[in-house]
């Protein structure tokens, strides 16, 4: 059986990570920025699991599980921050958050 | 060969859905695209032979976190993000085939991923635990301290989310600074 090579996993991971970073930079909606971060985390998961399938280990899958758990924490805290920003400032775009600008 | 075809299928659909995440302007479309991307990434995990991580990705990530996003998004009055004065009756009927398509997508990913998984261990899940047993034994021996730390991080994150998201007595503009 022909195995999927490691380079295919890495190329897919690079493309998804690039799209996630692109979304984090380009988009202005706060929820969309958070979901682009989720996309980048999934790209890292693909790289871990692909390297795991190539090396025949199980350690990368454990790190993928940790990343899934930490992404849940990130979603909870990030959405809490966004709800607090919306409640206090009535804005939903990252362009309007200019209080820290020097 | 079959594995390679499945990888190309899952990977190309994941990239298409990720383009949808980046390019859609409506937030609900973005969440649905993210859900599709997560399901396709779970398919990639099945192709790589990581059945436990793929199943947890389908269960926790794809379903629970997407539902969590939609719940928070509808609980908050986003006047700009969501349209206010429309009934969504016709659109509500039209969502049914979309929901059905997502369900079929999950079923397709699971069946296809299990059939092309290299060792096919989830089919003989009862007889020999395979990948799940390996991951569990490494997780609870070599990485046990990290596992406990992740549970601590989950607890701290839960407390922090409750404290950040609770309703304040006064808004920021009323205060002295």
Most extensive interface, chain pair and sizes: A-B, 56 and 65 residues
Q: From N to C, what is the helix and strand string of chain B? A: HHHHHH
In the predicted model, the low-confidence regions of chain B spanning at least 5 consecutive residues are 81-86
Based on DSSP secondary structure assignment, what is the total number of beta strands of chain A?
Answer: 0
Provide the CATH architecture of the domain at 30-91 in chain A. Orthogonal Bundle
Query: Care to count the β-strands of chain B?
Result: 0
Separate helix tally of chain A: 3
CATH class of the domain at 30-91 in chain A: Mainly Alpha
Rg measurement of chain A, Å: 17 Å
The topology string of helices and strands of chain A comes to HHH
| Biggest sheet character of chain A | none
Mean pLDDT of chain A: 85
Unreliable runs of chain A, pLDDT <50, ≥5 residues?
none
User: How would you classify the helix and strand content of chain A by structural class?
Assistant: mainly alpha
The level of helicity of chain B is over 70%
Shape of chain A: elongated
């Amino acid at each position: 059986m022909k195995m999927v090579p490691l380079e295919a996993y890495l190329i897919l991971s690079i493309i998804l990570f690039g799209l996630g970073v692109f979304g984090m930079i380009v988009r202005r909606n706060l929820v969309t920025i958070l979901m682009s971060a989720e996309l980048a985390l999934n790209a890292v998961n693909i790289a871990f699991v692909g390297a795991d399938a190539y090396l025949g280990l199980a350690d990368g899958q454990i790190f993928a599980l940790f990343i899934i758990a930490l992404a849940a924490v990130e979603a909870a805290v990030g959405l809490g921050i966004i709800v607090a920003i919306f409640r206090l400032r009535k804005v939903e775009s990252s362009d309007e958050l200019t209080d820290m600008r020097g | 060969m079959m594995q390679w075809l499945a990888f190309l299928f899952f990977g190309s659909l994941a990239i298409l859905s990720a383009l949808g995440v980046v390019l859609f302007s409506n937030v609900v479309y973005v969440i649905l695209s993210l859900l599709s991307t997560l399901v396709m990434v779970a398919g990639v995990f099945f192709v790589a032979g990581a059945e436990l991580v793929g199943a947890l990705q389908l269960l926790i990530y794809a379903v629970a976190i997407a539902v969590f996003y939609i719940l928070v998004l509808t609980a908050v009055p986003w006047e700009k993000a969501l349209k206010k004065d429309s009934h969504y009756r016709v659109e509500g009927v039209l969502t049914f085939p979309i929901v059905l398509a997502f369900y079929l997508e999950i079923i397709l990913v699971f069946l296809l991923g299990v059939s092309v998984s290299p060792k096919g261990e989830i089919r003989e899940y009862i007889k020999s635990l395979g990948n799940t047993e390996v991951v569990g034994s490494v997780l609870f021996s070599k990485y046990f301290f990290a596992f406990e730390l992740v549970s601590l991080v989950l607890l701290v994150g839960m407390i922090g989310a409750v404290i950040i998201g609770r309703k304040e007595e006064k808004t920021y503009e009323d205060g002295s600074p």
